[in-house]
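Let us practice reading a record.
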Amino acid sequence: MSATEFDRPRLELAKVAVGFTFATNGLAYAGWLARAPAVRDGLDLSAAGFGLLLLCLSVAAISAIPLAGPLVQRFGPARAVLIGSTSMVLGLTGLATGTLVGSVPLAGLGLVLTGMGNSTWDVAMNVEGADVERRLGRTIMPRFHAGFSLGTVLGAAFSAVAAAVDLPIWAQLYITAALAAAVTAPTVRKFLPYHPLPAGEKPAMSVGQAWREPRTVLIGLVMLGFGFTEGTANDWLAIGLVDGYRADDTIAAIAFGSFVTAMTLGRLFGGYAIERWGRVLTLRLTAASAALGLLLVVSEIAVPFAIAGALLWGAGASLGFPIGMSSAADDPARAAIRVSVAGSVGYGAFLAGPPLIGLLAEHVGVLRAMLCVFGALALGLLASGATRPIEPAPDGVAGKSGD
């Protein structure tokens, strides 16, 4: 269906719906993590045991991403988001019930459903977001990802209030699950209409074909490099301030808050930079910002320099994932499969990053362990040329790169 077949109000309505979907996903997925210690205590787990429990979430999420593309291609983004959100709602409910009754296996099953559902939800909303972006003719994908970031902030705020009023974590999880279900079901009805392939007609691309495309894999490496850059700060920045600078928890929280604020603002306004300079140059500039920020953080000069570094780091990490998702979805006929394959590569950073930094920190300290982010940024830079726009191609033909 061509862009001219949708009027402007219909596209604007779809844009708002996608934004709400990103924000709801952020709230549902990350909101409860602020009270992860309460889940650990409710299940009476050690730190190592809780780490293994969280591995259920990560492994399920990574494993489900390659399956999400064919699902989106078969049923369309709206139904795929609904399927993913339903799995996530059931997963959060299982985690809540497991915590309530003290059942680790039930909580683990809940996290498996949560991880699988989130992957499907994530791929589907990015495919829809890329379609809306393409039809509107302007760069808005970073704003959708900013919506996700804002959703995580709202989720963290809800967690803080829940903890302050002594609301049990299982009750918070039930409320979060109900809220996600109540918001998502009516929101996806505002997505653009999807027309599945006629019965018996083969899709434009298979998962195996996408894995053999150098461009798609390179886009995944861009997302991996920038995802590792983002994830390292999410997991270790505050700890690095405490261990490396002997800062108190308040200063560490300020540094982390500076990072997430800069990242959110970068996503809100990064579209203007992409439209002016293009994807490749924007990635290179943001990589330079992240590298300078990281250097300031690990330098151990003084806390104000570290906080300034956190701001530069956050701005630098903000656009890698949105640009990667938009790039993988340049060709609408192949968007779902390419997004799922590139996402499979990119999300590997969130599975491998935290334990790698932790292992290195045992030997050289957290701040020095963070130096491996330079390697991730170098990887993203080397692969950044793959994000140049391509023109949609006929079946079985690779797309042509744009300028």
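A brief commentary: The beta strands are 390-391, 400-401.
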